[in-house]
Structure formats: C-alpha cells, structure tokens
Amino acid sequence: MSTFGDLLDAGQFVDAAVCTTCLHGTLYDQWPADGEWTSARAERARATLESYQLTPGHLHAGAFSNCSHAGSPCPDDCACERSEFSHATCAVCGNTEPGDRHDAILVAHADLRP
Ligand SMILES: [Zn+2]
Ligand SMILES: [Zn+2]
Ligand SMILES: [Zn+2]
To answer: Residue 71 domain-assigned?
Structure first.
C-alpha cells in the first residue's frame, strides 16, 4: 500500500488547477445549487471526486514541483498556489470560464488502497 507521501515522491499524482467553486466545495462540502453550477459541472465534479482525493496546494520543491519559486520557501502572503485570471480548465468540474484557479494535488483513491 502506498501512502500519500509515497505517491508524491513518486510523482504519482495530478498537478491540478481547480476553480474556486470546486476548492470550496471539496473543503467544506458546500456546492452551489444553481446559477453557473450546471448539472454537467456537478456530474463531472462528482465523478472526479469519486476517483480522486483532492489536497489543496502544490509541491513547493522537488522533482515534481511546478512552483514558481521551487526550492525556496514561500514568503508571507505568497500567491504561488493561486492564479487570479486563468483559462485553465478546472480539473474537477471541467469549468473553462476564465477566473481564479487554485493549485491542488489529485491522488487516485485506488492508489491509496492496500
Ligand atoms: Zn509554491
Ligand atoms: Zn509560494
Ligand atoms: Zn471546478
């Protein structure tokens, strides 16, 4: 069985960018009921989170880091885990609307099982 740390060391994770809705939804289990949160996004988010465990943030150092200042510690109020106006597709719900994206690490539940 692999631990979360083993998987990170081995690069066995997805370096993801997720929209604010999905970050908050995952952290607080609060998902919007209407508006821009379409059933397509809701369904995709449900399917993604069924397969993957989401951990906010990214690796700040190491071979698998994509940190803008990899190898040096975060200064106060560092924004390296966040993009304020990104066109990246949300890795959880597939949202392509430009906006805030937050870095997150996705690890497959299957990899964490014995
Ligand atoms: Zn960083
Ligand atoms: Zn930083
Ligand atoms: Zn999303």
So the answer is: no
Domain holding 42, by residue range, is 14-64+77-109
- List CB-based neighbours of ion ligand 3 within 5 Å: 19, 22, 90, 92-93, 95
Cβ-contact 20, 30 below 8 angstroms:
no
C-alpha 99/C-alpha 83 separation (Å) is 8
**Shortest-distance ligand to the CA of residue 75:** 2
pLDDT tens digits for range 68-103: 999 899 999 999 999 999 999 999 999 999 999 999
pTM exceeds 0.90: yes
**d(CA 36, ligand 2 centre) in Å:** 30
> Do the domain assignments include residue 88?
yes
